């Protein structure tokens, strides 16, 4: 997998900083402490869902955390639980190396903004006062300064905003309130830690003085020395997995002599923190640290969760939406607890993360197909136990492998289970039956038991039986994906804030780069053809776009990312389409390491949900590019009734509404999307277009001599929804008026056999490669397009680029390109189409005019203009786009001429 220059650069910059920090102090005068870690006394989470479900942030016992800290080589201990120091007080009775510490949740008065503040060295009376004052951060920090209690602002770029955007100006207040900042947080990635470092380094005395005047805040009320900003580190560990592996180096001059003289380690540490003699140590986690933390947390939730109580949940503070989601999650977790294999796997994985190998019963009971999964779990446990320094590295490799192994088995069982729904195969199932199966019964228990609803819905698939069938490791595929999503969501939930800050700092700014997802790229259809043309232009002009496709044999190339599928599903109902299913974690890693910050998706089935997953996980904008009107497709190709059509429309509407914008290829489609049926916001639906991908070198604009037989041409997929059966009537009428005329057909598809029978005198070329089509266009006199389904019509532009006019129905895509009587011909019905063809072939002068008009119209569809407009609509800066030529109108203006 190729790493983006941005991804490589931020790693190199931050690793260089950590190496410099490690050499800052004399090792003989240095103490090591993890200033940010938690155990089970962090029992009241800040997150609403945690409070609704009555879940603590961790079940980690104090002695387990202390053991992890000691194994990591820390010299003294602090446990910074939320709003309490109970663990510190209990430890101090027996351990003289404990420094009291707490992570308080503090609030800005009159503002929906909360931050965490670490504080050390207080006694029990001071703890009570701090708890009283934490609802006013100014009073809290003033008291801490008065009592000489050092504070640290952890993860300065991550705080709680309660759903609203926060201006980076809040950081100016942080600079006035604090003199110590956590520059290394073990649960944050390279970009956030580096941004934090660069922001702290930008805090000059001049800026602090200016902000003091601006906000009317005297920094000396809160800081001993507001101009001295010191840096700390902490693991932010909640599970005991990485505790002590990130932390803070404390410089204590003459350390050995002072300890021998009887000074306590907590007192010496407190002095170093107060004086700013600190430096972070450790390593930055990538996705593996936080993903593992969430994975272990979820395992413990399933193992330990108790019923939160329905009335309690409904009467709790919070929005109804959150309560309903928590109710659904609670029911799902309770169902998981009913399945012994699921519980067994989660418990085994949880123990492996602690270094405990699977039990003998697990080893003996696992089937052969799951041996590779168990081997990976054993590897995790062995590494944690014997080579803890390699633990993050093994996790980075093992978790994706674990997900892939389990997913292979999962999809194998899914294929087996789906094949039993109709005792045949999924590919032959009628579309209306598939639509009905999308329904979920209101009686949830029917999904997990032998009970069945009266209708045809998802209760026909017994999820409880399916879980048992998959056995204990298979369900972890969803758990792994959920953990990966949750960890990334936490890291990037305030992405807009980070982007603005990076812009202000003028450094470490995330590049503007698009990942374009598609399920089809090498198939014989118009979408694949259009996307290959996009790739050609992107490669030629180095545009900030990469295409991503999942395919078993296709090779990656510049601007084309290819990943191998986990499995594939074949859909006869969708035009013999094969959908390859990618590994979700592999896509997620590619998005992260490729340095992308926005998404386009061209297909709905597999890559569509993945695009929405990435949008939510990374807090990036996502657009959908509509190539196909599926509602029209299904209504023409299937016999579904209006009730099924309405359900499909609602499903499609719900899907498209999740995107930040939609690109469409014609005005009719746009009006439908912003109309009452779909109700998409008008400003979020943008017109775009394709262009002629392959043009002939010399376009012949002269009509043929009278003695040459005229040639009518059809190019495209041979399927009935494309209107190909209309060709028979048109051809019969044309041949009666022009007996010597020929009909050429280039393409293949399911209706080919039927069409050959209806048109025995036509010449069938089969599928013709796009590069060879100009030769055929040059010989033809008129292109016939009898489809009422096409949203655009790339074939029209390809023909126009050869000076070949098109005769099409007056609908959707074709009418947005063809100007009737000037660059082509439009017909209302089959009879009119036939008459237009007859008249056209009878008038050589008319043919010449339309050939000139067709070539001129094709020039309006410039790839430079189209792609520049698309990049503009997606918010890409001018500096990374194609330069616009002077006098070239934007596409949207041309389309209305």
Automatic annotation (TrEMBL):
Coiled-coil regions, chain positions: none
InterPro entries given in the database record: Glyco_trans_4-like_N (IPR028098), Glycosyltransferase_grp1 (IPR050194), Pol/histidinol_Pase-like (IPR016195)
Domain Glycosyltransferase subfamily 4-like N-terminal, chain residue ranges per copy: 525-675
Pfam family, one: Glyco_trans_1_4
Listed PANTHER family: SULFOQUINOVOSYL TRANSFERASE SQD2
Protein name per its UniProtKB record: Glycosyltransferase subfamily 4-like N-terminal domain-containing protein
Taxonomic classification: Bacteria, Pseudomonadati, Pseudomonadota, Gammaproteobacteria, Oceanospirillales
